[in-house]
Amino acid sequence: MKLLGLLIIGLAMVCASACQPDADTAFKTGLKYYNGDGVTKDYASAMEWFKKAAAQGLAAAQYKIGVMYCNGEGVTRDHAEAVQWLKKAADQGYADGQCDLGLMYNKGAGVTQDYTEALKWFRKAAAQGLANSQCNIGAMYALGQGVDQDYVEAVDWFRKAADQGYADGQCGLGLMYYNGKGVNQNFREAMEWFRKAAEQGQAVAQYNIGEIYLRGIGVTQNYAEAFRWFWKAAAQGNTDAQYNIAMMYYNGQNYTEAFKWFRKAADQGHQEAKEALQEFPF
């Protein structure tokens, strides 16, 4: 009877194992629900499937769960919980998990802000060639976060990301050339990198191109071209671009449009736009 009991238990365990979807299948099912690929988008179902895969140790699933807690997708936003799941993925060497964990430490979201810890995780991901992390390291050197400020080192890291086509890295490198930080000031080179980023829809780069045309820095001054690039950035919610559009309308005496764009920027907290509204003629 004891042997029979053991056999029954063993069969039950085999059945449970056979009925449990493998991690890759569970993860792919979760992605379908997450993206609405062939099924109705459903974050709750996505989370359920990701957790099945994560329980089997799949780092990609652990990462997605962390992202969902961070963004509040299908769950209440919980940065501390997000950190726990990102750490699980990061500890397995999952580069996206390492990068996002670094961001949490950099921002102090769900953990005590710690630039040294942020840089540690960014470096792990950057060593795997992740452009996002390379760009983040560049920003930390440019700002002196957790390291001595070093513009030359910042340029090196921005370039690593930019050479992979990463738009934020291209914009960062453009800013270094524009300001002459870590490299000789070169407006033409700055514009080249801004354009590469702007063509990918990077709003800050689009705004910067608008500024260059507005002021005629290294190019022939061209208000129409400035307006065109500001518009692209403003459409993505860039408040500096919205403010500049308002100013261009104001200077052209189109006060109705000027007021509208000042309001857009002010509603997002742009201080100069708020002050402009207080002094508006109507």
Topology overview:
Elements: H1 2-19, H2 23-35, H3 43-54, H4 59-71, H5 79-91, H6 95-107, H7 115-126, H8 131-143, H9 151-162, H10 167-179, H11 187-198, H12 203-215, H13 223-234, H14 239-251, H15 255-267, H16 271-278
Helix pairs in contact: 2-3, 3-4, 4-5, 5-6, 6-7, 7-8, 8-9, 9-10, 10-11, 11-12, 12-13, 13-14, 14-15, 15-16
Any idea what the CATH architecture of the largest domain is?
Alpha Horseshoe
Q: Which runs of at least 5 residues are low in confidence (pLDDT < 50)?
A: 11-16
Helix-strand pattern: HHHHHHHHHHHHHHHH
CATH topology of the largest domain, by name, is: Serine Threonine Protein Phosphatase 5, Tetratricopeptide repeat
Structural class: mainly alpha
* Percentage of residues in helical conformation: over 70%
State the name of the first-level CATH class of the largest domain.
Answer: Mainly Alpha
- What number of domains? 3
Instruction: Please state the CA-atom Rg, rounded to the nearest Å.
Output: 25 Å
Strands, count: 0
Straight-line distance between termini: 93 Å
Shape descriptor:
globular
Average pLDDT number: 93
Strand-residue proportion: under 5%
CATH superfamily descriptor of the largest domain: Tetratricopeptide repeat domain
Please, how many helices? 16
Task: Report the biggest beta sheet as strand number plus sense, adding barrel if it closes.
Answer: none
